[in-house]
Amino acid sequence: MSEELENEKWKNVSSVTQWVIATDGYGQRVGRKVLPGREIAVRPSERSEIQHRVAHEKNDIFTNGDMVPVTLVESAPDFAEIQDNDYLSESDLEDVLKGRADALRERVAEIESPTTIKRLLDMCEAKDLASSKVKVLEERYEKLTEYVPRFLGDGTGGEDGISDASTL
């Protein structure tokens, strides 16, 4: 089976609805919403196209922790890169929360996904963990959620080099 006919499955582990451009049964491009906790099947080429449309790597839902792979297509050109990404399972998250707050601070400094930090915060709340751990996670979440332009041309004049629309 060719790569174009095989689908990857991705699960939305974030707390918000994600939008993905996919091909319907008639070969037409359509926007599909992926509710929290739900899965979607996309072709690797569709995923790649979506990834190329984001202005900043932090907003790539396929690598920032918002969506995690359920199944991947081994023949995809970026299979190894996607497979090597740091996706954390529920048990991985529980392991991160074990130990002291200073060890947690070191570990979460390595995490670049606000969604992953949010998942850790939700676990803290559910398990009623120490406020020192919650504070560490809240600080990291705040740092990771500083404004970053979502798409090229959103008028922010940010890292994408596009100036404010009023100056055009």
What does this structure look like?
The chain is of the alpha+beta class and 168 residues long. The protein folds into 2 domains: 3-83, no CATH class; 90-144, no CATH class. It is 35% helix and 15% strand. It has 6 helices and 5 strands; from the N terminus they run ββββαβααααα. Strands 4-1-5 form a 3-stranded antiparallel sheet. It has a two-stranded antiparallel ribbon with strand order 2-3. A hairpin with a 5-residue loop joins β2 (18-23) and β3 (29-34). α4 (101-108) packs parallel to α6 (131-144) and α5 (114-127) packs antiparallel against α6 (131-144). The protein is elongated, with a radius of gyration of 18 Å. The model is unreliable at 156-168 (pLDDT under 50).
Shape: elongated
User: How many structural domains are formed by the residues?
Assistant: 2
Oligomer category: single chain
Let me know the number of strands: 5
Helix/strand class: alpha+beta
Number of helical stretches of at least 4 residues = 6
Distance between the termini: 48 Å
Instruction: Please provide the ordered H/E string of secondary-structure elements.
Output: EEEEHEHHHHH
Give, in spatial order, the strands making up the sheet with the most strands: 4-1-5
Low-confidence stretches: 156-168
Rg on CA atoms, Å: 18 Å
How confident is the prediction overall: mean pLDDT? 82
Main pleated-sheet profile: 3 strands, antiparallel
Helical coverage, percent range: 25-40%
